[in-house]
Amino acid sequence: MSVPAVELVGITKRFGGVLANDGVDLAVERGEVHAVVGENGAGKSTLMSILYGLHRPDAGHVLRSGARMRLRSPADAIAHGLGMVHQRFRLFPGLSVAENVVIGAEPMRRGMLDRAAARRSVADLAERYGLGVDPGARVGDLPVGTRQRVEILKALYRRAEVLILDEPTAVLTPGEAAGLFRMVRELAGEGVSVLLVTHKLNEVLAAGDRVTVLRGGRVTGRFSTAGTSADELVRAMIGRSLAAAPPTVTEPSAVTEPSTVTEPSTVAKAAGAEVTGVEATATPVPVPGGVAVGMPADPYRLEVRDLHVRDRDGVTTVAGVSFGVRPGEIVGIAGVAGSGQRDLVDAVTGLRRPHSGTVLLDGRPVTGSRERRVAYVPGDRAGRATAPELSLADNLLMGDQHGFLLDPGGVRRRATSLVERFSIRAASVRVPIAQLSGGNAQKAVLARELSRDTPVLVVEEPTQGVDVGAQEQIHALLAAARDGGRAVLLLSSELSELRVLADRVLVMFEGRVTAALPVAQATDERLGAAMTGAAMTGAAMTGAATTSAATTSASTTGAATTGATVDVRGQAGESAG
Ligand SMILES: Nc1ncnc2c1ncn2[C@@H]1O[C@H](COP(=O)(O)OP(=O)(O)OP(=O)(O)O)[C@@H](O)[C@H]1O
């Protein structure tokens, strides 16, 4: 047998009382795609960080082509031919692809950056590995999938022969993910070894050669992907099959208050805001107690009317979007990154003031804080959802502090109960949330927001970075929130997730809704076509008409104009609509 390209031997790493890696052995052959899987907190990131020189192990060592490496920092790892592509890219948006790739290792000519040489070598590399990147393009103008290739090019430019990819498809569309894996296979064919950390077992089985499974810091399985099923991997990961023991879930906070408004606004109807062809097919959702919610006749809990949002540079990112979400309904939003869905969510949650248009909760336009009526799980967990230096307990309470100000015992009790209910793994509720594994921090945010007693729930990428067992649990919780009568707006780049959870799926492209489909009609083909603007599907026809109809209506109908402008200027909007 050949000498492995890299070999981790007996790696042990503790963080205080937490044993993150416990005598881990892992060998990666030259030209092999080796997946590392395991539930949240299993120790995958810690192991990769040790390999990349970001953490020092307490015991064990790392061999490169059979020779022991000294890894004091990433610079040592890079010098030994290792490269890592993190989930959060480290690129300068204002610089070109070539400048980003060579930065820190620039070709110089008479003391100056040799731009021509930089472009040439980046173009050569891109060509050699079939990366399809224009070296002269400005990184800020590139889609996410292409930015990721720039990160990979950066590593290859530094002569990486072992590439660590940390959940590389978390930010990619299905098409981009397929492109990435074609490229990964190409790289492997050229002799590059790829370490792939992911929660997506279909990717592991499709793109990997071998798999190492971690659980509680130890290796619990080694597989060749040939002849291995996803279920075998799951059992090694979580100790059971997924179907064997579905989690029992109780709705954390059923919303019982009745809606205050009984009719969707006539203005909205006149403007075509109700996407009729699709609404009529909405299936009633039975709930315990025999009451059906989500009936076509139910008024909207959340309604968006002819919303326009502009970014800081004045560019329109949401261009006339209208839809409603009824109690007991999950409306999914799909779209390639940058299609306006993030700004739409910002406007719905009150984080961004729309340029025009209205957001209504239970029929009333909202202007100020939505904190107490809209629970929100942001996609950008580290940036928006948590205060990293605060404890897990404090983070579990954020937004709900008032009741607990004088009751530290209450804070701890509530936190402990959420930790149990959501199976959050942490040494204690007192540790800073930054010390939790990515998936466990994500579960904490979901626990906090799902347990808040709000009629509307807005969730972005709920299962990004969480393990398969937790994915199942989170899906069950979202379904329970829906069945308890909440209106749920779900943004997800996982089409399969939208299909499992949503009652209807809206697709956004260039700031508009290009498809509005009941879930039964939301095939990959239809969604894919709408995501690239190639087709207008189902009620999107109406949706497109909605834009112009609403504009006309807004300019000719006094009530509509009032509704829109009152909301935008932040004046008392309660009487409008
Ligand atoms: N800097 C740190 N300080 C304290 N504890 C840490 C630190 N980094 C990781 N841990 C702990 O080590 C354990 C392993 O975490 P790690 O991030 O390696 O897991 P993971 O398998 O990558 O999880 P995920 O899939 O959620 O990203 C967890 O219990 C985590 O809380």
Protein architecture, described:
It is a single chain. This protein has three domains: 6-238, 3-Layer(aba) Sandwich (Rossmann fold), CATH 3.40.50; 249-370 and 456-568, P-loop containing nucleotide triphosphate hydrolases (Rossmann fold, 3-Layer(aba) Sandwich), CATH 3.40.50.300; 374-453, no CATH class. Helices cover 34% and strands 23% of the residues. It contains 20 helices and 25 strands. Strands 20-21-22-17-23-24-25 form a seven-stranded mixed β-sheet, sandwiched between helices. Strands 6-9-10-3-11-12 form a six-stranded mixed β-sheet, sandwiched between helices. Helix 19 crosses helix 20. It starts with 5 loop residues before the first strand and ends in an 8-residue tail after the last helix. The relative contact order is 0.11. Bound molecules: adenosine-5'-triphosphate. Adenosine-5'-triphosphate binds next to strand 2, helix 1 and helix 15.
Chain-wise SSE layout:
Blueprint: E1 6-15, E2 18-28, E3 33-38, H1 44-51, E4 59-64, E5 67-68, H2 74-79, E6 82-85, H3 97-102, E7 108-109, E8 112-113, H4 115-128, H5 144-157, E9 162-166, H6 174-189, E10 193-197, H7 201-207, E11 210-215, E12 218-224, H8 230-238, H9 266-270, H10 276-279, E13 285-286, E14 292-293, E15 302-310, E16 316-325, E17 329-334, H11 341-349, E18 356-361, E19 364-365, E20 374-377, H12 381-385, H13 392-397, H14 408-421, H15 438-450, E21 456-460, H16 468-483, E22 487-491, H17 495-501, E23 504-509, E24 512-518, H18 524-531, E25 537-538, H19 540-556, H20 558-569
Helix pairs in contact: 19-20
